[in-house]
């Protein structure tokens, strides 16, 4: 399904969007990727959503990416005898391993690994940072704290520890079971929560064993500090601004977002900007002006994708939220300022033959009357390199592998077409011309750029660039075998 914009839209599925009719409507409205949140729902419910997405894909003949978002280790306080207590600024409060019900003076924090890593002066944030505690003294089973920001603390509220790298694996036992289950279903992407270092990613990659691409969520200060290593280990990145904005000053998040998006683009790896993009549309059919500006900013920065969470999963207006994102993206991408910003942020990267070919393809396309760049790709790498260039003409990614087409549905500008295996370059050019015409990207009198690798179906062999006519008679009469 051809879009009128290049940035992709990720829509989270949930109670508000679990029927065939709604999921199909979301895709038709603009959702390119569907996110399955493994924090909610049984395996049976996840499998049902997966099956519906694949049916929509087949019915509309449109490659759709499915992203399974693993929960990660959840740090929570225990329970209170009264259900909740009011903590006052300046008061003392103790966290410990005692399973007894809590009161206004203490509560259980059933995570010994936190106490092992804590030091005096560290901060603990409870309930998305609404309550802030500063550690005064601590040991292997306790932390005596001062309340620096008071409020109501209640049963099983989440805890963030921004100041230390916790000795926790990014994958809990639940995550391992979920990972195996969704890889068996055939999801395309795995989102890894609570990433702190590259070894967290390598563990997930080992378990996935090539069955799904791994996307790291950047939501911890440690992940920002170790970003280059995490990026190298990952197939993609999500700038998860929710927890990131809790654990860091909110004023630090926008510049971090900009830096991470640029580094992902330079590495030719897709990046999603996520969390609270159209938050008000959970209950309102119209977004705020500030939310629209936030969405537009991510697009101007060159993000591959923008994401809806509760807006599409549990909100009252899931389809309207997708349509709003689609409308904003379409408007931004025809703005001359957008074109200038994208061009100015383009940096030479890489010194391989493939790097040179995709850069040349973009230059040729933008300086002549070329209508599209057609990339034959086995693993998706050539299409990703082309997307990194952010060309001013459509990218058609042709691949014999449905799983490659689905993964590329997350990447900027990639219009994915599953095509038969090719053995000769002339056949590849003909196939590209047909795809360009049938998709409405070019007419018979137009020209396209075709990139491919010979021998075919060998990853990493991009070595040919051809400017070709869309008229098949001219291809057969002029192109070598």
Automatic annotation (TrEMBL):
Residues 5-322 form the Pyruvate kinase barrel domain. Keywords: ATP-binding, Glycolysis, Kinase, Magnesium, Metal-binding, Nucleotide-binding, Pyruvate, Transferase. This is Pyruvate kinase. InterPro entries: Pyr_Knase (IPR001697), Pyrv/PenolPyrv_kinase-like_dom (IPR015813), Pyrv_kinase-like_dom_sf (IPR040442), Pyrv_Knase-like_insert_dom_sf (IPR011037), Pyrv_Knase_brl (IPR015793), Pyrv_Knase_C (IPR015795), Pyrv_Knase_C_sf (IPR036918), Pyrv_Knase_insert_dom_sf (IPR015806). Pathway: Carbohydrate degradation; glycolysis; pyruvate from D-glyceraldehyde 3-phosphate: step 5/5. It catalyses: pyruvate + ATP = phosphoenolpyruvate + ADP + H(+). GO terms for molecular function: ATP binding; kinase activity; magnesium ion binding; potassium ion binding; pyruvate kinase activity. It is an enzyme of class 2 (transferase). The keyword Transferase applies. It comes from the Bacteria. Its EC number is 2.7.1.40. Gene3D superfamilies: Phosphoenolpyruvate-binding domains, PK beta-barrel domain-like, Pyruvate kinase, C-terminal domain. The keyword Zinc-finger does not apply. Residues 355-467 form the Pyruvate kinase C-terminal domain. Belongs to the pyruvate kinase family.
């Amino acid at each position: 399904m051809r879009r009128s914009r290049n940035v992709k839209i990720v829509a989270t599925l949930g109670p508000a969007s679990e029927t065939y009719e709604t999921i199909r409507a979301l895709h038709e409205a603009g959702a390119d990727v569907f996110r399955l949140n493994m924090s909610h729902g049984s395996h049976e419910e996840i499998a049902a959503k997966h099956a519906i997405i694949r049916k929509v894909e087949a019915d509309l003949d449109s490659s759709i990416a499915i992203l399974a978002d693993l929960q990660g280790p959840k740090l929570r306080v225990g329970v209170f005898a009264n259900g909740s207590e009011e903590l006052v600024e300046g008061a003392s409060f103790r966290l410990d391993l005692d399973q007894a019900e809590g009161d206004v003076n203490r509560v259980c924090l059933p995570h010994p690994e936190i106490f092992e890593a804590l030091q005096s002066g560290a901060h603990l944030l409870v309930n998305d940072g609404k309550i802030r505690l500063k550690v005064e003294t601590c040991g292997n089973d306790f932390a005596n704290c001062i309340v620096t920001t008071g409020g109501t603390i209640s049963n099983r509220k989440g805890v963030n520890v921004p100041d230390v790298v916790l000795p926790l694996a990014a994958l809990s036992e639940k995550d391992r079971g979920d990972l195996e289950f969704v890889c068996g279903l055939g999801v395309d992407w795995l989102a890894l929560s609570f990433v702190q270092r590259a070894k967290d990613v390598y563990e997930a990659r080992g378990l996935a064993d090539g069955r799904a691409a791994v996307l790291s969520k950047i939501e911890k200060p440690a992940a920002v500090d170790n970003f280059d290593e995490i990026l190298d280990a990952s197939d993609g990145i999500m700038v998860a601004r929710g927890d990131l904005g809790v654990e860091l000053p909110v004023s630090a998040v926008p510049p971090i977002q900009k830096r991470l998006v640029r580094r992902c683009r330079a590495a030719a790896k897709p990046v999603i900007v996520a969390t609270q993009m159209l938050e008000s549309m959970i209950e309102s059919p119209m977004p705020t002006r500030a939310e629209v500006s936030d969405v537009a900013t991510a697009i101007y920065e060159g993000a591959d994708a923008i994401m809806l969470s509760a807006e599409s999963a549990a909100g009252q207006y899931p389809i309207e939220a997708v349509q709003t994102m689609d409308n904003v993206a379409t408007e931004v991408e025809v703005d001359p300022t957008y074109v200038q910003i994208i061009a100015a942020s383009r940096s030479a990267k890489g010194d391989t033959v493939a790097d040179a070919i995709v850069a040349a393809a973009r230059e040729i396309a933008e300086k002549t009357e070329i209508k599209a760049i057609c990339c034959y790709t086995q693993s998706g790498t050539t299409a990703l390199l082309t997307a990194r260039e952010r060309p001013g003409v459509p990218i058609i990614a042709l691949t014999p592998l449905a799983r490659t087409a689905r993964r590329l549905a997350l990447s900027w500008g990639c219009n994915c077409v599953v095509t038969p295996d090719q053995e000769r370059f002339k056949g590849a050019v003909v196939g590209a011309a047909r795809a360009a015409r049938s998709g409405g990207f070019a007419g018979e009198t137009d020209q396209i750029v075709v990139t491919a690798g010979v021998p075919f179906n060998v990853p990493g062999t991009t070595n040919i660039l051809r400017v070709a006519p869309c008229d098949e008679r001219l291809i057969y009469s002029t192109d070598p075998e």
